[in-house]
Structure formats: C-alpha cells, structure tokens
Amino acid sequence: MSEETETVDHGGRPCPMCGEPMYHRHCKYVCPQHGVVFDCADTFY
C-alpha cells in the first residue's frame, strides 16, 4: 500500500485578498478561494 505524502501547512499566512489562511505546498502559498497567491519568485511580507 503506497500513500502519497504532500507537505501541506494549514493556518499559515493569511491571503492578502480575503484573509483566509493559506496552504503551504512546496514553494507556493495557495489560498482556498484564490489559488496560488505567492511562489518562490515572490518576495514575502
């Protein structure tokens, strides 16, 4: 039995557009409402 493991952090940075906690996936911050908001190329606040 194989399980796919993915690093997901709930409750991280708030989305700058709606304030929802974003998921941290690999090198991206993903808002459940707006999709990818930040990635590695972006500067973070």
Note the topology.
Layout: E1 8-9, E2 23-25, E3 28-31, E4 35-38
Antiparallel strand pairs: 1-2, 2-3, 3-4
What does this molecule look like?
- The protein is mainly β.
- The chain is 0% helix and 29% strand.
- A 4-stranded antiparallel sheet has the order 1-2-3-4, with no helix packed on it.
- The N and C termini lie far apart (41 Å).
- 7% of the residues are buried.
- The model is unreliable at 1-8 (pLDDT under 50).
Keyphrases for this structure?
four-stranded antiparallel β-sheet, 4 strands, HVO_2523-like, HVO_2523 family zinc finger protein
- Largest sheet, spatial ordering of strands: 1-2-3-4
Largest sheet: 4 strands, antiparallel
Low-confidence stretches: 1-8
For the record, give the distance between the C-alpha atoms at the N and C termini, rounded to a whole number. 41 Å
User: Globular, elongated, flat, extended or rod-shaped: what is the shape?
Assistant: globular
Organism: Halobium salinum
Protein name: HVO_2523 family zinc finger protein
InterPro entries: HVO_2523-like
Describe the structure concisely for a colleague.
0% of the residues lie in helices and 29% in strands. With 45 residues, the chain is mainly β.
